[in-house]
C-alpha cells in the first residue's frame, strides 16, 4: 500500500481507502461486511470512510463493529453529516444543532472517541456558513474531530468557507470528496485548480463509475443480475447515466490497454484517478473480500503519459445523457 498526505495536512492516508456507502447495512449481511473490512486491513488499507446517513445510520454501526479491537491510532476513520437522519426539521442540514448532535451520534455508532475527518456531506443553502464553520471548529477544539472536510462542494463554496476560516481563525478545510472517474471529470475545470492552490486534497468516490469501468456491463445486453444496475437501494438510479450503448462500447475498448499493463479494468480505472496529483485517495467499496483484494492492486501503479493519452483517445468526449448531469467533454489536467 502507498500513502499520501490528505491535502497539505500532515495526515497520511492509504491511497486506496475503503468506503461503505451502498454495502454495509444494506446490500450485504454483516458477516460479509466484516470479511470485506478484514480484507481491506489485510491489504494495508488504513483509511475507512462512511456517513451517518448510509443505510439509515446502520453503516456506521457495522463499520464500528468491524473495526473493534483494531489499534485506533493506526486507523483513519472518516464520516459525514448533512442528510436527514431522523424525522425532525432539525435532523438534517449543517446547523450547529444538527452538526453537534450528529457528531456525537456518529461517535457512539462508530465506537470511537474521535473521527479523523468530519465532512459536510453537501453544502447547506439554508444555514449561514459562519455557523457551520464555527460548529466544525468547536468539534476540532474539543478533540472529537481532528480534521474538517467537505463533499461535493462547488469551487466557489469551498472558497467561501476558506475565507471565513481565515478571517475567524478556524481550522481550514483539508479535503473534498467528489465523484471522479474516467467518465465523470467535473472537478477538473474549477475544483481541482482551487484545491491545488489552497492545499485541499480530493477523496474521490466511484473511481470505477459504479462498476461500469470494470467492463461487466456490455452494450446491447441487460445488466447482469446482482449488479449495481439491478439494485433497488439507490444504486440503479446512480448508474443509469452511464448505461448508454455507445459509452459502454468505448469502455470495452479499454480492455486491451488494461491487458497490456497486466491490470484488471477496475485496477486501471482506480489507478487512472490516482495519477491526478490533487487526489489523496480513491475510495473503493466491496460486497465480497476478493473485490477488495483486486482493487488494492491499483496502489502504486504509474500510468505513463502515452497510456493516459490512449485512454483519452479511446473514450473521447464523454457526454452524459441526463440533461441535469451534462458536463463538458473530458480533458485531463
Let me know the largest β-sheet.
8 strands, parallel, barrel
Radius of gyration: 19 Å
What is the strand content?
A: 5-15%
CATH superfamily of the domain at 3-209 and 276-301: NADP-dependent oxidoreductase domain
Quaternary structure of the protein: single chain
* Helical segment count: 12
Q: Which CATH C-level class of the domain at 3-209 and 276-301 is it?
A: Alpha Beta
Structural class: alpha/beta
- The helicity comes to 25-40%
Strand arrangement, largest sheet?
Answer: 3-4-5-6-7-8-9-10
Which word captures the global form? Answer: globular
CATH topology-level fold name of the domain at 3-209 and 276-301: TIM Barrel
The secondary-structure element order is EEEHEHEHEHEHEHEHHHHEHH
Give the overall pLDDT as a whole number: 89
DSSP, total strands: 10
N-end to C-end Cα span: 25 Å
CATH architecture identity of the domain at 3-209 and 276-301: Alpha-Beta Barrel
Unreliable spans: 321-333
Overview of this protein structure:
This protein is α/β, with parallel strands linked by helices. The protein has helices at residues 30-42, 58-67, 96-110, 129-141, 155-168, 191-198, 235-239, 245-252, 255-261, 265-274, 289-295, 305-315; strands spanning 3-5, 12-14, 16-19, 47-49, 76-81, 115-120, 145-150, 173-176, 201-204, 279-284. An 8-stranded parallel beta barrel has the order 3-4-5-6-7-8-9-10, surrounded by 5 helices. The chain is globular. GO terms for molecular function: oxidoreductase activity.
Amino acid at each position: 500500500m502507498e500513502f499520501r498526505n490528505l491535502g497539505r495536512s500532515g495526515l497520511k492516508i492509504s491511497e486506496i481507502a475503503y468506503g461503505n456507502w451502498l454495502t454495509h447495512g444494506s446490500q450485504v449481511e454483516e458477516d460479509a461486511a466484516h470479511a470485506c473490512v478484514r480484507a481491506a486491513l489485510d491489504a494495508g488499507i488504513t483509511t475507512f470512510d462512511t456517513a451517518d446517513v448510509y443505510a439509515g445510520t446502520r453503516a456506521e454501526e457495522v463499520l464500528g463493529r468491524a473495526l473493534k479491537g483494531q489499534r485506533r491510532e493506526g486507523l483513519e476513520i472518516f464520516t459525514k453529516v448533512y442528510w436527514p437522519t431522523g424525522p425532525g426539521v432539525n435532523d438534517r442540514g449543517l446547523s450547529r444543532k444538527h452538526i453537534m448532535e450528529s457528531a456525537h451520534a456518529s461517535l457512539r455508532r462508530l465506537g470511537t472517541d474521535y473521527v479523523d475527518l468530519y465532512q459536510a456531506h453537501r453544502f447547506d443553502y439554508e444555514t449561514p456558513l459562519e455557523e457551520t464553520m464555527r460548529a466544525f471548529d468547536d468539534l476540532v477544539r474539543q478533540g472529537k474531530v481532528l480534521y474538517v472536510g467537505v463533499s461535493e462542494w462547488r469551487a466557489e463554496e469551498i472558497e467561501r468557507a476558506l475565507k471565513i476560516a481565515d478571517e475567524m481563525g478556524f481550522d481550514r478545510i483539508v479535503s473534498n470528496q467528489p465523484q471522479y472517474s474516467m467518465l465523470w471529470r467535473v472537478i477538473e475545470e474549477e475544483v481541482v485548480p482551487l484545491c491545488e492552490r489552497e492545499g485541499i486534497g480530493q477523496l474521490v468516490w466511484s473511481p470505477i463509475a459504479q462498476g461500469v469501468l470494470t467492463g461487466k456491463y456490455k452494450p446491447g445486453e441487460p445488466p447482469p443480475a446482482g449488479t449495481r444496475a439491478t439494485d433497488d437501494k439507490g444504486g440503479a438510479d446512480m448508474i443509469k447515466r452511464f448505461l448508454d450503448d455507445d459509452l459502454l462500447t468505448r469502455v470495452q475498448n479499454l480492455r486491451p490497454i488494461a491487458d497490456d499493463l497486466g491490470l484488471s479494468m477496475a485496477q486501471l480505472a482506480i489507478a487512472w484517478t490516482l495519477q491526478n496529483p490533487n487526489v489523496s485517495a480513491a475510495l473503493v467499496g466491496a460486497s465480497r473480500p476478493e473485490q477488495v483484494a483486486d482493487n488494492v492492486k491499483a496502489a502504486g501503479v504509474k500510468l505513463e503519459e502515452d497510456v493516459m493519452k490512449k485512454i483519452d483517445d479511446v473514450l473521447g468526449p464523454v457526454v452524459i445523457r441526463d440533461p441535469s448531469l451534462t458536463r463538458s467533454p473530458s480533458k485531463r489536467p
